[in-house]
Amino acid sequence: MRTGNIGEICNRDVVVATGEMTVTAAAQLMRHYHVGTIVICEQLNGGRRVPMGIVTDRDIVVEVVAPELRAGTITVGDIMGGELVTVRESEGVLQALEIMRYKGVRRLPVVGEDGQLAGLIAIDDILEVLAEELTDISKVMVSERSIEAASRR
After folding, report:
1. Is the distance from CB of 138 to CB of 128 less than 8 angstroms?
2. pTM, two decimal places
């Protein structure tokens, strides 16, 4: 694989918030940064960002908009999922894919050895890496055929 670990391909520019942020403010943040995911962190001040949960645009629609709740009074902490699944920077692409498959999630916060947020990896990112690898494999096959054909003339 081109990449040795998730830390090499994850998105390091992660939009974060605390659990006290309102859903309205989170939606505005998503719109401003053109993202569909916010990682909820325990602390933002003091430099530490320990992930506690994730809120997606889908969570907002399903948990707040569809039941016609007031987004200005509900916090992201109220709607984020219960169990947060993370992956370490040092894990490989296939290990991250296995975690996603086993846990049924499409996004994983990436954490360093100290548990602090280092990035975010999405299934789309992994698919892009795997597609590049498959392209390289197909090039090997084409090259092999060309070399074999040339040697038999």
Report:
1. no
2. 0.83
